[in-house]
């Protein structure tokens, strides 16, 4: 029962990318990237991307650094952060400053994520 929404998921761990695709492919079309730089290129190449979820801890460019760059060009796309490290002051500030539209903690809670994504996809 997949809808037409396209979600970009960014995570440096291949197993997390696979798990995300398995969990959400019945709901969304999933595009994955293993780095912030790859995700920026995919955003440029895929204007149909409706929403982005990124891991926080990644080498080179962390999730918030990626979002800061991407948000400057893609203001209309909702960006979410996914982290296994809890709600840090840095993430809290990003939420308060509306740099990110939401935050999810690992392990992934599919029902919660789908509910939150649908709220944003229906709003856009």
Could you outline the blueprint of secondary structure elements for this entry?
Blueprint (H helix, E strand, L loop, with lengths): L5 E5 L3 H11 L4 E5 L2 H10 L3 E7 L7 H11 L5 E5 L5 H8 L5 E4 L4 H14 L1
Structure write-up:
With 124 residues, this protein is an alpha/beta fold. The chain has a single domain, classed as Rossmann fold (3-Layer(aba) Sandwich), CATH 3.40.50. Helices cover 44% and strands 21% of the residues. The chain contains five helices and five strands. It has helices at residues 14-24, 36-45, 63-73, 89-96, 110-123; strands at residues 6-10, 29-33, 49-55, 79-83, 102-105. It has a five-stranded parallel sheet, with helices on both faces. Strand 1, helix 1 (14-24) and strand 2 (29-33) form a beta-alpha-beta unit. The radius of gyration is 13 Å and the shape is globular. The chain starts with 5 loop residues before the first strand and ends with a helix.
The fraction of residues in strands falls at: 15-25%
Structural class comes to alpha/beta
Q: So, CATH architecture?
A: 3-Layer(aba) Sandwich
* Rg from Cα: 13 Å
Concise account of the structure shown:
With 124 residues, the chain is of the alpha/beta class. Helices cover 44% and strands 21% of the residues.
Which short descriptors sum up this protein?
124 residues, alpha/beta, Rossmann fold, five-stranded parallel beta sheet, 5 helices, 5 strands, 44% helix
């Amino acid at each position: 029962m997949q809808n037409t929404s396209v979600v970009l998921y960014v995570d440096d761990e291949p197993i997390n990318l696979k798990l995300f695709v398995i969990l959400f492919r019945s709901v969304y079309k999933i595009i994955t990237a293993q780095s912030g730089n790859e995700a920026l290129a995919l955003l440029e190449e895929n204007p149909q991307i409706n929403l982005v979820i990124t891991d926080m801890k990644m080498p080179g460019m962390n999730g918030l650094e990626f979002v800061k760059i991407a948000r400057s060009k893609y203001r209309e796309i909702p960006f979410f952060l996914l982290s296994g490290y809890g709600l840090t002051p840095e993430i809290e500030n990003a939420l308060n400053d509306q740099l990110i539209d939401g935050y999810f903690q690992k392990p992934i809670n599919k029902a919660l994520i789908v509910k939150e994504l649908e709220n944003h996809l229906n709003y856009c």
